[in-house]
Amino acid sequence: MSVNRIPRVRLAKNLRDVLVVRVLRNSCREYMTNHRKRIGLAQQIRWHFSYYRRALREGVYRVYLFQNDSGTPVGYGAALLRDGALYVTECVAPNFRGQGYGRAILDELIAIGSHERRTLIAEIWRSNKASIALHANSGFALETTRQQSGADLYVYRLEPRAKNI
């Protein structure tokens, strides 16, 4: 089954949104490359007020919340600006995997990177075959492999697409 329509997307701007993202993120935590532990409610609230609001204002970090036609959150995409590139992360809630939402989320992040003329970087565990295939099929190229926490971490890169003149 695949997504019939493009899911609704909005920038997570308020505490309510980032609390929804917390639930989604915890459902994907085994695939996270930086922090795999469950994030608690107080921890997410602290993060929102001490980091995210400022990072969003400064354009350093943003999270996009995706919903299906009935308004149910299905996943999120995040972009961290570092060294001129956007480091991207996607998460699809377990109940919605295999339906094309991962592709829709990644396509949105690619469009953002293209609009901003930024290289996209995705760090993916070697064991995450679905994410590797998704990124490879979207034009990302394997740049390097490194060890992290005793496992292979693949670093994929996508250069910004040329704009039509």
Number of strands: 7
State the share of residues found in helices, binned by percent: 25-40%
The assigned structural class equals alpha+beta
Largest sheet, order of strands side by side? 1-2-3-4-5-7-6
Task: Report what the structure shows.
The longest helix is centred in the N-terminal third of the chain and has 18 residues, at about 40-60. The protein has helices at about 15-25, 40-60, 100-115, 130-135, and strands spanning about 10, 60-65, 75-80, 85-90, 120-125, 140-150, 150-160. The chain has four helices and seven strands. Strands 1-2-3-4-5-7-6 form a seven-stranded mixed beta sheet, with helices on both faces. The chain has one domain (about 10-160): Gcn5-related N-acetyltransferase (GNAT) (Aminopeptidase, 3-Layer(aba) Sandwich), CATH 3.40.630. By secondary structure, the protein is an alpha+beta fold.
